[in-house]
Amino acid sequence: MEIEFYKLNGSGNDFIIVDNRHGLIQESQYAPFVKAVCRRKESLGADGLIFLEEEPGYAFRWRFFNSDGSEAEMCGNGSRCVARFAYLKGIAGPEMVFLTKAGPIRASVSGRRVKVLMPKPWGLKMGLSLLKDGAEISMDFINTGVPHSVIITEYPDDLPVESLGRHIRFHNLFSPQGTNVNFVKVLDKNQIMVRTYERGVEGETLACGTGSVASALITSLRGMTTSPVSVITRGGEVLKVYFALQGNEIAEVFLEGDTTLVCRGFLFEEAFDQDLTLSPKRKGETNV
After folding, report:
1. Residue 208: active-site member
2. Which of 38, 81, 208, 263 is labelled catalytic?
3. Is position 81 annotated as part of the catalytic site?
4. Is the per-residue pLDDT at 230 higher than 70?
5. How far apart are CA 181 and CA 145, in angstroms?
6. Cα-flanking dihedrals φ and ψ of residue 219, to 5°?
7. How far apart are CA 32 and CA 103, in angstroms?
8. Catalytic residue among 38, 75, 81, 263
9. Which pLDDT value is given to residue 276?
10. Which of 15, 83, 238, 282 has the fewest CB atoms within 10 Å of its CB?
11. Are 237 and 258 a contacting pair, CB within 8 Å?
12. Cα torsion through 137, 139, 145, 146, rounded to 10
């Protein structure tokens, strides 16, 4: 059995994308399949995997999974990559709307550059704090499709992002769903630098789209930045976040950045474990 995949990269986040509109991979097999093929060195490796499914009234529905097999509602960089994939494959035109668990996403594709309208942020909580090793850590929280804590600091490069991020991610304050954690330095009114610990990946990633949005919004709510905000990611690429604020009310939020088409190929059974049961192909179908 062979399964066609594309691999795309958005600002350092790499994603495997599988067109599963014909149901070759059964939904019950999604999580173990993802965990198997996202293993770096042992299989193809990626930060996450995206399945496309049929959805009446939309270009498609996506199912987004982190590398550990957990499903997430939204991923900013993943949404940009899947939009470009859908355009390249002729699944959608350059302007499209697709469905996620966080709601419909509108995307515009122009070459490598993709701009997406993000879900309406919610759950804003300012001035949170928790203790670690006797020290108080102050932060803000907002859900930009997935939950994000934002810590503003002058010295993000000096922080133990892995250990501190893990402590906050699993803290009771954010149970049961947990939180992603962003460490943000404000460079000027329109530019910030961000390091992100991502739940599901359970480590620091080179970029996080929803984290970039959360960081831009929180710094703006604190009067430190104004739209548009350029976000310098850990991988060095720059994402741009556009938004409008009316007090603490947030209007439409857009995330824009480049995508990279890395490769196209076929996954063989040895890459995803032979005990996974796949649906038989229908007559005339290719391995997609």
Report:
1. yes
2. 208
3. no
4. yes
5. 14
6. -65, -30
7. 25
8. 75
9. 65
10. 282
11. yes
12. 10
> For residue range 55-69, what is the model confidence (pLDDT) as tens digits?
999 999 999 999 999
Q: In the chain, what are the domains? A: 2-117+261-272 (3.10.310.10), 122-252 (3.10.310.10)
- Residue 208 structure tokens: 């996080």
Residue whose structure tokens are 């992002």 = 161
pTM of model > 0.90: no
Average pLDDT of the chain is 92
Give the β-pairing of 135-143 and 180-188.
unpaired
Taking Cα atoms as reference points, which of 210, 14, 3, 196 lies closest to residue 101?
Answer: 210
Calpha distance 211→146 (Å, rounded): 9
Q: What are phi and psi of 206, to 5 degrees?
A: -70, -20
Q: What is the pLDDT of residue 287?
A: 37
Which three-class secondary structure string do you get for the chain? CEEEEEEEEECCEEEEEEECCCCCECHHHHHHHHHHHCCCCCCCCCCEEEEEECCCCCCCEEEEEECCCCEECCCHHHHHHHHHHHHHCCCCCCEEEEEECCEEEEEEEECCEEEEECCCCEEEEEEEEEEECCEEEEEEEEECCCEEEEEECCCHHHCCHHHHHHHHHCCHHHCCCCCEEEEEEEEECCEEEEEEEECCCCEEECCCHHHHHHHHHHHHHCCCCCCCEEEECCCCCEEEEECCEECCEECCCEEEEECEEEEEEEEEHHHHCCCCCECCCCCCCCCC
pLDDT at 277 (0 to 100):
64
